[in-house]
Structures are given as structure tokens and as C-alpha cells.
Structure of Amidase domain-containing protein:
Amino acid sequence: MGLFSSPAKVYKPAAEVDLGPHSVAGEHYISPNVKAPRVAGLLVKMLAWVLETPVLGWIVLSVLKRDNLVYKLVSDAEIPEPPLFTATHTWQAAMPEKNVSVTEAGVSPAERVQVAVAGIPADMEPAATAAALADGPSSSFRRWTVRDFHSAYSSGQTTPVMVARRFLAAVEECSGPDRNMGLFISCDPGDVLRQAQESTRRYQQGAPLSAMDGVLVAVKDEIDCLPYPTTGSVRMPAALCGVVGFKPTAGRLSNSGLLPLNWTVGMPGILAATVEDTLIAYAAIADQSKPSPLQQPELNLPLLTSTRSIPNIRLAKYAKWFDDSSEDIRSLCGKALQMLRTHYGWESVEVTVPEIEEMRLAHYVTMGSECTASLAKYLNNMDRSEIGWDVRIALSAYGSFSSRDYLNSQRLRCRQMYFHEKIFETADAIVTPMTGVTAYALQDDALSTGELDYINGAALVRYSIAGNFLGLPAITVPVGYDREGLPVGLQFIGRPWSEATLLHLAYAMQESCGKEHCKKPKVHYDLLKKQ
């Protein structure tokens, strides 16, 4: 690299790396020190022009990659392991799970939902739902769940059509000039009402498809968002918004129909109000009959009614990594973990997860390289003016990665897979905060051009990389609010195919934190009660 070179890291074999709590100095934790200015407004346009200028762009990108240790830790590094090109986990990797109901391949979605609902504590019976819906002030806020809607429909207190109309009115109001929230890229009122009418008829006939019949579901038109695609774009927004985010093992949910933006790190997931709703949605879509590149083990659905009877779950915690977050997040997540230990008696063990910053950079190179290759045929037929300024900058950075960068990133993936497999030999899950910071304000200068804020961006994705890069299941559950009133999430990363264990953990965490950790949003529409 000449002028832009830096001393390359020489990695020792992964098997020689200390994973214990008192790791030697060679495995010290590197906190991300991103060296890139926040740019927005006119600066975004200027930077996009510079990076798209052949020689000048190469020089600027080379400096940025040098200063951010891409050359040192990835490009020029000496890595003994072979490349691992996909985060595959065979069914042999599955460990027996406790307190589950096993569903075999070929079971219909409705039957799986029925099994899931049967394993959920009946803490909200129809009479309780009816009381909650009754007129009168309420001293606390709770989000309506799948079972609440199903109960209200079954009792005749409301219908899917009534709920659909309230929903469409809310969408219209949110899209108006007063709020201009733009919640949906596409929403077909006619289709929504048609489906609601069909659902209403089924309830009137006493034959709903399942507990989810008539429950509104929003689908992300595109799972990934530049410039931070496939870095926890299910779990991260869930944590920032105070809901549950769940990403199963790579291959558990079918990718059929998804845009192949990132072949080896892009995976679908679920956002839901509660862990119970997450379980119900997971049961509905985890269809083993759909095409998947992996052979999967049987689908285990957790019996949340017996979560408390699980004798022990061992949680691995890397203190230096866990604590590398804002003061409020560190405090709230630490207290939440202590509550889990106190209420359930489960233990945590101290470990070292080596080379976390190296994994972040390797993931970034992998994601960027695959994104560029995937979009090439579209970008070649598009005028640059059709692409956002911030996206153009990201694509310029992605396009600068070489085949050597990509191969070395896959070698680092191989190392990380080994590290995590060794940790999971003695622990059931790894516990971390979900993000290093809470949601930060979008500044006015970013409204027309977008922005690039890689410093805050790196803090947001600090704990989400392993789930995507290694294809591991992970779930985040809200555990409180920072001093600004913004939600904080705690994350559990599991061994391959341990979705049921993660749902048990998340449910226990949800119950330990209590219902007070659910504040009413500033903008809220009650679809079951009349406004």
C-alpha cells in the first residue's frame, strides 16, 4: 500500500487464543475508534463528488481505511485460518433444549400457532381483555397483543373490519402535514379492508384461521437500509423503539422472496410488542417445508408456562465489551441481568470474546462487497441523480474493497465461528446490551441529503454483528429507559438452533423487568378502543 500502509496484524491460530475471563494482553479489547466526520447537507454532496472522482476518491478512501484500521486488521493481516464463506450450521450443531414442544415438518402454520399459544401463560383471559377495553381512565399503558385482538374478535366486542378502519385512519393522519411520519412505503386500503372483511366473516362463523386471524402485520418492504444494512436491522430498531426483536438461526426462516442484497449476512427476523407475540409470529413463519440451503433440526417452540422451572441457564458475559456503552445503558442492562439472576437463579460466567473490532470490520467489508455485487446490475442502469447522496458515498466505500479484503474477512469469520463455538461449550447464551447508544436526534441538515454518522453508527451496531456475520440466533428485549426517556434493550445471543432457549430467556427478562418498562409513545393509536 506504500504511503497508506500500516503495520499489519499477525494473528496467532484461533485455538491458541485465551477465551477465559482473565485473557492475556494479546487478546485485549479494542473499542471502536471510528475516524470519520459526520457529514450532512452540502458536505454530503461534496464528499460524494470527491469519492466518485477516480484518483482523488481512491486517495481519500485509502486514508479512511488506513485510519480506521481496515488495512492493519483485515486487508494486510496474516491470518492462519481458511476462509469461511457462509455462516452455515448443520442440524448436528443443535443441542437439546428444555421445556419445549417439538413440531415436525409438514405441520401447518395454524397448527404451529396453536401449539405456541398453548405454551403461553394465560395471564390475559377474555374477561380480563374485556375489562381492559372498558371505558374509563387507565393508570398504566400496555400494548395490545395477538391474544388481545383474538379475544376481542371472538367475543364480538370488535371486529377485524373495525380495527382495519381505525388503522387506515391512523395511517392517513400520520401521513398528513402535521405529523408527516411516512410510516408505510405502500399501503393498499382496499386490500386491507378486503382481508379484514374475510376475517370478520370467519369469526362470525366461529372458524378463524388461528389466533393471528385479523391481526394487522406490517412487513418491511426491504429488510436492509443503507448505509447500515444487515447489521441488526431487526434487533437494533426494536431496541431503539422499546419492543422485542428476534433473529433466528440463519436458514430457520426462508429467504424466498427477499431481495438478495447480502447473500451471507442478510437474514429476516421479527419485531413484536411482547415476547409472547414474537413466539406466535415465529411459529407462524418458521415453516420447515419452505426452501432452505440448510438441513434444519426439528422446530422447538418454548413452553413459556414452565420457563421458571428451567433449573439453570448459563449466560456468558464479556465485561469489557458489555460495559462499552453509554452510562445509562450500562447501568440498566447490568441491573436487568442481576434481576434475572435473582428471580430465576440462573448464573452468568465471565468470558473473553476476542477480536470484536476485527469482526466488525470484517463484517463491514463482507456486507459492502456483497451489496455492491448484488446491486451492480441495477446501478449500471441508473443515473446517479436517482440515488441518495448518502447512499452514493456508502457505495463508493463498498466498491473500494478488493478480493483480498473479502477473503481475509472470511478468514476472520472462521476465527469468530471457532471462538463462539468454544464459548457455547460452557454457556447457553452470550448476554450484551443491544446498542451502545440510544436513538440520537436526526439533525435538520440531514433531512434533504441524508447523513453519514459512522461514529454513532458504530455504537449502534456494536453488539449486533455476530448474529448476522455468524448466522447465530439473537433476541433483544426492552429493559428500561435512559434519563432522556429513550428505550434500552438487552440482547441474548444463542448457539445455533437455540431459538426456544432465547425465547425463554427473553420471557424471563420481560417478566423480571415488569410491565412498568413500557411507556406510552408520544404518538399512539389505540386500535381496539374507540378514540
